[in-house]
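User: Can you write out an input/output pair for a complex, sequences first and structure second?

Assistant: Here is one pair. Inputs:
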Amino acid sequence: MQATTLVYDGSFNGFLTTVFEIYEKRIALPIIKKETDFQKDFFSETDTIISSSDKAKRVFKGIKKLLKTKGCNTIYYAFLSEIIGVENTLYNVIKYAFTTQQNIISDYSNVEVLALSKIARKVSREKHRMEAFVRFQETKDGIYFANIEPDFNVLPLINYHFTKRYADQKWIIYDLKRKYGLFYNLKKTEIITLNFNVTTKKKDWFTLNENEYKTLWKEYFESTNIEERINTKLHIQHVPKRYWKYLSEKQP
Amino acid sequence: MSFQRIREKLNILADAAKYDVSCASSGSNRKNTNNGLGNASSMGICHTFTKDGRCVSLLKILLTNHCIFDCAYCVTRKSNDIKRAAFKVQEVVDLTINFYRRNYIEGLFLSSGIFKNADYTMERLVAVAKKLRLEENFNGYIHLKSIPGASDELMREAGLYADRLSVNIEIPTKEGLKALAPDKNHEDFIKPMKKVKNEIIQYKSEKKIIKSTPKYAPAGQSTQMIIGASNENDMQIMYTSNYLYNTFDLKRVYYSGYIPVSYDKRLPMIGTEVPVLRENRLYQTDWLLRFYGFDVREILNPKHPNLDLDIDPKLSWALRNLNQFPVDINKADKMLLARVPGLGITSVNKILSARRFRNLNWEHLKTIGVKLNRAKYFITCNSRYFETKDYSASQLKQIIVQSSNSKHKKAFTGQLALFT
């Protein structure tokens, strides 16, 4: 039997619509791909999916009925990993749930379920790291600014945490890799894209005190160290080197 | 404010505070309700880690390192010749707020040397917390030290602004304390703990009736013991700890391997290695008591007054109680599974979820991520093959130690290597 490649726009709604279409058109061997990852070949059938929030809602409702909130979170988190091909693992797990009509999200001896839960865990860890490692710098117009380059698309996940926490200051967290950010304007948080080169290197963007606080923090970090207990391996395990670029205390 | 002066103070007073190992920012449920600054994360967040691998979650400083006491084990003791400094209340408030706004920290951990007297010191600690809460609308985490001997009224106020209160008993035994800190006595530490415990209970019960009752130290209280400064054994340490957990509902007891800071003859010499492995075994025991349903007497008793350093306390217990094994993975209840060496609570929960779908065999356990190299000697599962040999405890210990890749292995094999 021939496989059918389904191409969607990369959004979560788009993915759910794709699942809808697979059931609607009874596609036996689907391969789901993002527009951006798709290269046309001549041997398989392709179908382009047009996102529909109605169809997406119906699928999501169906999933939630079986897998509850925990399962929906696992699926959304894993989706945000943007790992190439994760859609197919997601589809297989959703299919497994629909076929058995059971909440199979904790059936860890099933290979696909386990794989999905591992991916979701990775994303959740990245989310938690971003909540910890984001470092704001105050700009001259009073906005606390930070940029990040997370491994996964975690901005939608950290939105709630930062909006709750910094309710009385304006802030921006900008994802350099995916070229969009969150902006909180003291009322609500919006998605923004900036059309200039975003960097925290430009000293004249930031207030004069900014550097002083950076120094204070860095020296504080140095003086918390207990020389007699030094354990570099553990240190790097907790703060992997790829995150050092965010951390002012780790700058020379 | 003058940054230069603040920098000097911060260096001195952060350095002096680093021996307090607690840095937890978890367990509080303070919400940002007033559109102010901060929202306590109930799971806690580590914003960075020191070079020795400890979490940095709070701005941990002393208000001052001037102290009227002369406790031998303490860096800030009166007789020690070190630089002294003191923060003003407002300076601590500004530092906390500015660090918090930049997402450096979860909040403040404020301790202090005792200057003048207990009340005078406690008053200033409370003033910082009060200012943060009332003037700055700060909802982040605040951990205050209870100063032994402070008045009940001040302790009550402290709990209204702080998320956690702690008083370090430092030396696990009464005799040890008498020798090393002759100015202090055991009762001084117990009294504030009792006070805080009672306040917590009272506020909780009032809250059930009147919803607007304020929170009192929602993240509870904790304490710390120094390990290896006086010559107490592990049994004395853990029995004290068990007593504290049961009597005062402590959230945490911390164990801090003694870091030599003095030439005092009563203490280990400067340059003595920090007992990190022993500290680790004590924490493992602490976890077994709090999460794995063990009774302290099962692990430590007059027959076994000290923990093994080469194997973990659960394995050590299992080897002394081989008659309780093997355990059937597919039938045993949660608390029994938790007693199997090599199974942590995460694995136990995964097994419980997964076995609802099918009976598990070795393959399944492996996919789930159970570390079988240790567990396989203590369990049976849905498979015809299992460890049938009757090993004696010492044989089993040898097999497991040899097959495991403990990070501490070096410490034990180094000596053996000389003879092979």
